Amino acid sequence: MAASISGLASGLDTATIINQLMQLEAAPQNRLKTRISDEKLVLTSLQALNKTVAGLATKAEALAKDTAWRPLTATSSNAAVGVSATSSASPRSLTVTVTGVAATHQLGFANAAGLSDVVTGASTKVRLDRFDGSPVELESGDGTLQGLVSAINKPENATGLTATVVKQADNSYRLLVESTKTGAVEDFDLTALDGSPLLGGATVRAGSNASIDLGAGITATSATNTFAEVVPGTTITLGAAATTGTVSTITVARDTSGMSAKVKDLVDSINAALGEIDVKAAAGGAGKTAGPLAGDGAARQLRTALLDTIRGDAGGTSLAAYGIQVTRSGRLELDETTFKAAYAADPVGTAEMFTTTGDGFAARVAAVAKGASDSTEGTLSAAITGRQSGIDRMEDSIDEWDRRLTLRRTALERQFTALETALSQMSSQSSWLAGQLSSLPSSSS
């Protein structure tokens, strides 16, 4: 409405005047918007730092566990003999000599036949004897060679065997049957139902167990080529290339390099958190830009607490003996050579310097990091919650300001409209009076 009559009576650009007045009215709201923008930057920085510290807490908690300090590497001098070790194993070295490999039990039948030839004799059934005192009668369907193969391989029959035919010439096949598992106990026989030989009888390759000699008159056997827990925590597996007489030296040793890598990863993660705090909490000044967390006490306290973890209790053993020190720039550094030497010399004592059991370094880092990042009680989490609540309140104030400014603009538009209307009416009256006065007869002298 104001725009449609702007200045018609007064000659004033009332629309511009209203806009300028509204700019003055909106100044507090604009300052509030700027503050919200600044607070959101702080909030984003706190959330990113919290994520970094939460990741640090996870790594530190893992390294603070006793089980993290029992990693072992298992190696074999011969690729034909594999070895693996669990955390329950102990460092040791064994010389293993293969004295036998596990094999399936096989029957190769003498006579050839066509796939559609009847091979089971007078009955369509055959006798499967596993030498356990409970032979079974196996129905082959039509009694043909193909029917017999299908019956042996049918999953529902659960024979524990596989059958195949080997082609010798056109319509001439020989039957080969073997156990699906290895071991001496997998022996079996397959005959006609009356016990007579099937297909002229079979050549037998007996199933066998694997066996190894560990020296000092100690041997071990297995129905498979895997010797599980042959010594506590250690499993030996004979590969396809293993043969009788194969010799291998099995070594289970502490994974010094692996532990050094874990400790380095923790130190690097601490330094990443410290670096992030330094950038985001930079004080500024002397031409430098202050970081978004420059005034945040929680970030500065966290930095101090993280560096203090290297000290531990008063009078405690220095971590310098394990390769960890604080640099002049306020970072941690790890000398891996020093750490590896300390761990090799005293693995138990070194572990205690890091684990929860000994209130060690990793345990202290975990406590500090979790104390900052815990979703319910963490200092950073509390700061994030507080900032978010403040932003929410300010955004509510922005909405309230929008309503007030809308009402204020409406009021100003009404006031200026009334002004223009009054001035227009006064102008009309003035013109009417001027016309009336001009129409009066002039007096003559």
Question: Concise description?
Answer:
With 445 residues, the protein is α+β, with helices and mostly antiparallel strands. Helix content is 42%, strand content 22%. The longest helix is centred in the C-terminal third of the chain and has 61 residues, at 379-439.
Question: Could you explain the architecture of this structure?
Answer:
With 445 residues, the chain is α+β, with helices and mostly antiparallel strands. It contains 10 helices and 17 strands. It has helices at residues 2-5, 14-25, 27-63, 145-153, 256-280, 297-308, 336-345, 347-352, 361-373, 379-439; strands spanning 72-76, 81-85, 92-100, 104-109, 125-129, 136-139, 161-169, 172-182, 189-192, 202-205, 210-215, 218-222, 226-231, 234-238, 247-254, 324-326, 332-334. The protein has a 5-stranded antiparallel sheet with strand order 1-15-3-11-12, with no helix packed on it. Strand 7 (161-169) and strand 8 form a beta hairpin. The protein is elongated, with a radius of gyration of 45 Å. The model has no long low-confidence stretch (mean pLDDT 89).
